[in-house]
Every structure is written in structure tokens, then in C-alpha cells.
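I am sending you the entry underneath: sequence plus C-alpha cells. Let me know what the C-alpha cell row says about the fold:
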Amino acid sequence: MNRKIKQGDKEYSSFQLFIEITEKRSSAIISLSEPETVNKEMFKLILLLSCFVGSRLRQEDFPPRIVEHPSDVIVSKGEPTTLNCKAEGRPTPTIEWYKDGERVETDKDDPRSHRMLLPSGSLFFLRIVHGRRSKPDEGSYVCVARNYLGEAVSRNASLEVACK
């Protein structure tokens, strides 16, 4: 059975493939038939389209894309600031922030955090923390939007603390 098909091989030369999408749009019937056979259909296969966690893929679902990228900011120690990020996607993507390659902890991780993830996806700092030895807020930030269809990464934005 595992032989190479050559042009002119009679048993393979005149097959036809038919695909019929069912009304439910979650399955399709694929038929392979040879016109010379009496039965016309050698076999049928019901193909169930792949689903994600039990839900059907809908035509309107699409992967995330960043529609507002964060911008560089210079802010004074102790002052509030916001790094903006907005993303589109369906289902609505989740947003995470990374600073210098490390995930940023927000109020969702620790209620005492001075960083808040806003519903829009932006990162709000209640106050900028900056010391001689510790500079936890200064650095390069990106936001990452994710849903089951993929992810989108924003441009880098630097947060610098102004010297007084």
C-alpha cells in the first residue's frame, strides 16, 4: 500500500474530492469518489473542526492586536503616572506587563502593590518608587495581550525617574 503514485496510475487518476459544510458550521462531510465505481463513494468522513476548551471557533474570533502602544515617560519620585496600552481581540485579550523582561506584579497579584492594572490594560503607578539602591519602577516596559488565538506585544516604553 505504501508505494509512490505515478502519473497515469489508473487507480488514482480520476478521484474527486467533495467538501460539504453542514448547517451547524461545526462539522463538514468530506467524500472521495471514483467516477467509474458503482457505489460512487469510497468513504465518507465527518470532520469536526477543532474546538478550544469545548467552545466552537466563531468567525468573529480574532487574535489580539495592540491599538495603543505605551510611550516613554519621565516622572518624579513619589508622583503617579500611567503607561497606556490598549488591545483588541475576540475573545477580549488579557493584558500583562513586563519590565526588563520580568512580569510586573500589580494589585491583582498583591493588593498592597503601588501598581494597578486598569480595565483598559494600562499600567497605573500610584507613586513612583525610587531610592539610591533600589529603583523598582525605572526600566523598559512592554505590554502583552493574549487570547487563545495568539498574543501581541507592544513597543518598548522606558520609564525614567527625574533627578531633583
About this structure: The chain has two domains: 13-48, 62-162. The chain has no helices and 14 strands. Residues 129 and 136 are 6 Å apart (CA to CA). Residues 38-54 have pLDDT under 50 and may be disordered.
